[in-house]
Specification:
The chain has 413 residues and is α+β, with helices and mostly antiparallel strands. Helix content is 27%, strand content 24%.
């Protein structure tokens, strides 16, 4: 079998000009079937989310913490936990919203738990206005993004509504498609003087701040919310929120960067008062990842940073650990993109109701990876990591070659 897989790579016309790492593992007998540069480091892109996924399974309860709070006299004071599900457009969890709405006390948000920048380590600054790079905060709301949608040919709906006054028409732009853009350092949004087409829907990250957090909360709850400077006390209670696995599924299938980053903050919430990506990763590395053959360089939750570096064999052993941790293949595969059926693998493989690939993709410029589980026609389950870095050819060609190799393994073994 090893020789057959080796022959595929040797004869590949696609993979000769760039760096390729591949590992194929049989978890039944705990043996590596084939390796090519599997001990070399590659930029993982969104394969990083596998590590966030693993950490969340290890550290987070089945019902995630939505808020920390205390009641003092006539006031309810609350702190964020990093929970990404607060009115998130896909998860739609309203636990914290309903709790604050029902409170008959004065509401105060106490910021200061988050330790870090609004962007992750090594993120690209010129992507600030794209939906896939919202800012990181201790109490995210509505994905930390402004959503604009079609209302009529000359009007759009804006959520959260507090941003309505921040939108300005750019009368110099009278051609092209309707597209909203934001200034780099402020919450000033511009749109062209063109007709809005039905179905228009766009998300732009907004510049976050504690003051803006309470403004959005006040507008959403229809009641005043104040700011208070208060460290979280030892007797702070925890409000339960969204189901962890639901949040994980919404991270993995569409490869949601916002959810991934904030899940690491929720992990940090479990070990101390400071919500820190750095501290969370250090804790996870020390306590849960010692089984990996190669030391990882891991800096963010989503994989937006090119400073992340993992090896293919690390990915394989991590996936093996996840497989045993969940201990239910059907449950695990439901949380992952499925080849030809769902998530980021839906269009990579031929459309089917019986997928044979479940895993995670990862893409940046010149980077395209796939790591996951392949089910063979002979009833075996193999784990693979296929990492491609440094290519200039179209990503579609690289993707097609990965599909060809993994399909061959499915068909022949």
């Amino acid at each position: 079998m090893s020789k057959k897989v080796a022959k595929i790579f040797k004869n590949s016309e696609v993979t000769r000009q760039y760096q390729v790492g591949f590992a194929l593992y049989n978890p039944a007998d705990k043996k590596m079937i084939f390796q090519q540069e599997a001990d070399k480091y590659f930029t993982p892109a969104s394969n990083t989310k596998l590590y966030t996924f693993f950490a969340s399974l290890k550290m987070l309860p089945e019902v995630m913490p939505a808020l920390k709070y205390v009641e003092r006299n006539d006031s309810l004071i609350f702190w964020g936990t990093g929970d990404p599900s607060f009115l998130q457009f896909a998860v739609k969890d309203k636990s914290a919203y309903n709790f604050l709405l029902a409170a008959n006390k004065k509401l105060f948000f106490a910021p200061g738990r988050y330790s870090g920048s609004f962007f992750g380590d090594g993120w690209s600054w010129d992507d600030y206005d794209f939906y896939y790079q919202p800012e990181i905060t201790e109490m995210p709301i509505m994905d930390n993004m402004v959503t604009s949608t079609y209302a009529s040919p000359n009007k759009i709906n804006i959520e959260p509504r507090v941003f309505t006054s921040c939108f300005e028409i750019d009368s110099t732009k009278t051609t092209g498609n309707f597209q909203v853009s934001r200034d780099f350092l402020t919450n000033t949004f511009h749109y062209p003087a063109v007709v809005v087409k039905p179905g228009y829907n766009q998300q732009n990250p907004y510049k976050t701040s504690p003051q803006l957090t309470v403004e959005i909360l006040s507008d959403t709850l229809h009641k005043p919310v104040g700011l208070i400077n208060l460290k979280i006390p030892a007797d702070a209670k925890t409000l339960p929120g969204a189901k962890r696995d639901s949040v994980l599924k919404h991270m993995m299938l569409p490869s949601d960067n916002f959810i991934a980053e904030h899940l690491l903050l929720v992990c940090a919430n479990q070990i101390g008062d400071t919500l820190s990506t750095v501290k969370a990763i250090q804790y996870i590395n020390k306590n849960y990842l010692s089984f990996l053959p190669d030391k990882v360089k891991w800096v963010d939750g989503s994989g937006l940073s090119r400073q992340n570096l993992f090896t293919p064999r690390d990915n394989v052993y991590l996936l093996d650990s996840i497989y045993h941790l969940v201990n239910n293949p059907e449950k695990l595969f439901d949380l992952l993109p499925a080849g030809g059926k769902s998530g980021t693998l839906k269009n990579a493989y031929p459309k089917t109701d019986k997928p044979f690939v479940y895993g995670k993709t990862g893409s940046l410029g010149g980077v395209h990876n796939q790591s996951g589980y392949v089910l063979t026609k002979k009833g075996k389950t193999f784990i693979y990591a296929f990492m491609n870095n440094g290519f200039v050819k179209p990503t579609a060609e690289v993707r097609a070659e990965m599909v060809r190799v993994i399909t061959y393994i499915h068909d022949n073994f």
